[in-house]
Design a protein that fits this description.
Order of helices and strands: HHHHHHHHH
CATH class: Mainly Alpha
CATH superfamily: MFS general substrate transporter like domains
Structural class: mainly alpha
Shape: globular
Helix content: over 70%
Number of strands: 0
CATH topology: Growth Hormone, Chain: A
Strand content: under 5%
């Protein structure tokens, strides 16, 4: 209430009146909430559900951030030329598809298939993040970019916290309904969490696709 009334607010909530700003912030919240479920649930599926060692599970999980980092730099340059809405939307849709595929994993699913799915979700996250950040920073005046960047950081942290809380609740509830689950039950509980995360990512793709188009921001704006 105070921030809305003072002439020079530290946290300018009036920025959320701009849909070009609020929509990508909400999309970021949904993206981080959905993507964090991979790091949270997949170790349960691989270690307890498939009997792998922590080292083996960790090695498999590294495939996602590696391709994510490579894709993020490419998608940032792409958004400079064609705008941020299309690559961000495609990235979220790819993430939703990857999470949906993870929700089909069972005790007989080949490990190379799981790695391949992670190689899909990684580029999805990378394709989304840089253009979406560019859209947020490009939607505000230059003197408000520090505030906008802070809101992005808040969306990232809050999205991860909510994503872990929701995934944990779904996973624990699914296990509780099974009574005494074995490896197949653990995988089923993780699959349910991935399915919920896929729905969240799909909502994020819709949010990104329906926001107003913004001009390509260019290298200077993206760097800011």
């Amino acid at each position: 209430m105070v921030e809305l009334r003072v002439p020079n607010p530290m946290l300018d909530l009036r920025l959320f009146a701009r849909r070009t700003f609020s929509a990508p912030v909400v999309s970021a919240l949904l993206s981080y909430g959905a993507s964090i479920t991979t790091s949270f649930l997949l170790p349960f599926a691989l270690i307890q559900g498939r009997g792998m060692s922590p080292a083996q599970a960790g090695l498999i999980l590294t495939s996602q951030p590696i391709v994510m980092a490579l894709t993020a730099s490419i998608s940032g340059s792409l958004s400079d030329r064609i705008g941020s809405r299309a690559p961000a939307t495609i990235g979220m849709a790819v993430l939703a598809l990857g999470l949906l595929l993870l929700s089909r994993v069972d005790v007989s699913t080949p490990i190379p298939f799981i790695v391949t799915v992670l190689l899909v979700t990684g580029p999805g996250i990378g394709l989304f993040t840089s253009p979406n950040n560019s859209a947020v920073l490009g939607a505000v005046p230059s003197q408000r970019r520090g505030v906008a960047n802070g809101m992005l950081g808040t969306a990232r942290t809050l999205g991860m916290l909510l994503g872990i809380a929701l995934a944990g609740a779904v996973y624990a509830t699914s296990l509780g309904l099974q009574g005494d689950p074995g490896p197949a039950g653990i995988l089923q509980a993780a699959d349910t969490g991935f399915l919920v995360a896929s729905i969240i990512a799909a909502i994020g793709a819709e949010t990104s696709a329906t926001r107003p188009a913004a001009r390509p921001t260019g290298h200077k704006d993206r760097a800011a």
